[in-house]
Amino acid sequence: MTEILDGNGAAAAPSEGTPTRAAVLAWGLWDCGSAAFNAVVTTFVFAVYLTGSSFGDEDVIAAQLGWALAIAGFLIAVLAPVTGARSDSSGRRKFWLGVNTFLVVAMIAGMFFVLPSPEYLLLGLVLLAAGNVVFELAGVSYNAMLFQVSTPRTIGKVSGFGWGMGYIGGIVLLLIVYFGLIGPEVGLFGVTGDDGLDVRVAMLVSAAWFGLFALPLLLRVPENQAPDAQARARVNVLRSYVELGRDVAALWRTSRQTVYFLVASAIFRDGLAGVFTFGGVLAASAFGFSPGEVIIFAIAANVVAGIATISVGVLDDRLGAKPVIVTALIGLIVSGSLVFLLHDGGQIVFWTAGLALCLFVGPAQSASRTFLARLIPAGREGEVFGMYATTGRAASFLAPTAFALMVTIFGETYWGILGIVLVLLVGLLFLLPVKARRVQPA
User: Which residues contact 292 (CB under 8 A, 6 or more apart)?
Assistant: First the structure.
């Protein structure tokens, strides 16, 4: 038996029992399936399709998409910690993960009906925004289940495996939808680009992909155990918000380092998100990549990020999460600066320095999750991971604002790179004083 102590001396119990390899694999496969939403829907395919000229003025649509996602972000910030706390106390964490997962699957499938015409824009925006809300709520339960498939000494490796599976899923699914449906003039099943059919069928494929890869987790990983019947009875929707305020205050008193890390990670995670969010824009606008070349780069980026994430998960367990995050953030800052300084070098610069960025993104994301996991007081996993989602969303304006400001001030897209680098630097500075939790044998 081991005891995990943070800088304030608070103890957190490790998982009960020994998680099986089958449970770890099943958990990681959900991340593999989630690439359908992360890579295909929100990043490289459906969001690009929805902001195309077929739906109207592209600048107006981009603004409308921004407002739709802003509303989604607000809803996530409000709902995530409450739903996480309720899943902890009710003993229905896996149940709600399943419900939210298949709601996302249904929304992805519904995108098939978004024809390339202005009258379908609202439907597309609603499906994309609602999908973001439900997907993030599913992610709260999924992250909390990390405790059910790992031990204190393997949590870094298991977390890295999950992130890596997500990248692998993105690679394979992007290959399927691009080379099977979108790239050729006539794709699989005779699909063409008429009426956006190639993209719309890609949404059906993506929905099936997510649903299929979510099943092993729902079938093989056991449900979490509720603390007690009294705790279940206490929790209702309205009271959850009252208790949330008390929980934040209690977390500040009992695990202050957790609060510090939530703030620091909110900043640097937004910088990490900015690397992928604006990577395609930078590739096309500043380095002359064609749409097809952007997707090819995206596949390569997922390969690099996936290998790095799985590999570094072992170092996370041996050295701790904080050294991994600090090293990754420094690597991101240096690589991003090189993209900016050497931008006149053309596509070779983006291929080299850009892939170097991807080398560090995955490890920083995975280690961030395990760093927090080691800080959370026992029994509050879903609640604190809900706060993790909330703080991340609360800071989600930082990278886009910094990017836009730099481009507006200097008039060139490549200046936006410095905006992202600045956010990463601020996040690193906030992280440095945070004390890591140490693992000691009992």
Answer: 178, 183
Three-class DSSP category at 158: helix
Which residues on neighbouring strands pair with residue 4, listed in sequence order?
Answer: 12, 439
Please give the Cα distance from 353 to 342 (Å, whole number): 9
Residue 342 lies in domain: 256-375+397-433
pTM of the model: 0.74
Mean pLDDT in runs of 10 for the chain (442 residues)?
31 52 94 92 82 77 75 77 65 87 98 96 94 88 84 78 86 91 88 92 97 95 63 53 71 82 90 77 73 79 82 75 92 93 87 89 84 76 70 72 80 84 95 72 36
Sheet (strand 11-12) strand order: 11-12, 2-5, 438-441
Name 440's bridge partners. 3
The C-alpha angle with vertex 306 and arms to 305 and 309, in degrees rounded to 5, equals: 80
What was the pLDDT predicted at 148? 84
- Tell me the per-residue pLDDT of 250-265, one tens digit each, with 9 for 90 and over: 778 877 888 888 889 9
**In a domain? residue 382:** no
Q: What is the CATH number of the domain that holds 200?
A: 1.20.1250.20
What's the CA gap between 379 and 382, in Å, rounded?
8
In a shared domain, residues 69 and 148: yes
Q: CB neighbours (10 Å) of residue 59? A: 9
pLDDT at 100: 95
- Provide long-range contacts, Cβ within 8 A and 24+ apart, for 239-243: 240/82, 240/85, 240/86, 241/82, 243/85
**Strand ranges for 289-385 from DSSP E:** none
Q: Is 302:174 a contact under the CB 8 Å cutoff?
A: yes
Q: Would residue 189 be called left, alpha or beta, if left means φ above 0 and alpha means ψ between -120 and 50 degrees?
A: left
| Percent of all residues in the chain with a pLDDT value above 70, rounded to a whole number | 82
> How big, in percent rounded to 5, are the helix, strand and coil portions of the chain?
80, 0, 15
Measured over the CA atoms of residue 35, residue 41, residue 47 and residue 48, the dihedral's sign is: positive
Q: Residue 427 in contact with residue 271, Cβ under 8 Å?
A: yes
30: tokens are 């959900």
* Rg of the chain (C-alpha set): 21
- Whether residue 314 contacts residue 367, with contact meaning beta carbons closer than 8 Å, is answered with no
Using DSSP, state whether 266 is helix, strand or coil: helix
What is the rounded distance in angstroms from the CA atom of residue 68 to the CA atom of residue 250?
34
Spatial separation of the C-alpha atoms in residues 128 and 131, rounded to whole Å: 5
352 within 8 A of 301, measured Cβ to Cβ: no
Residue 14 CB coordination number (10 Å): 18
Q: Are 292 and 365 in the same domain?
A: yes
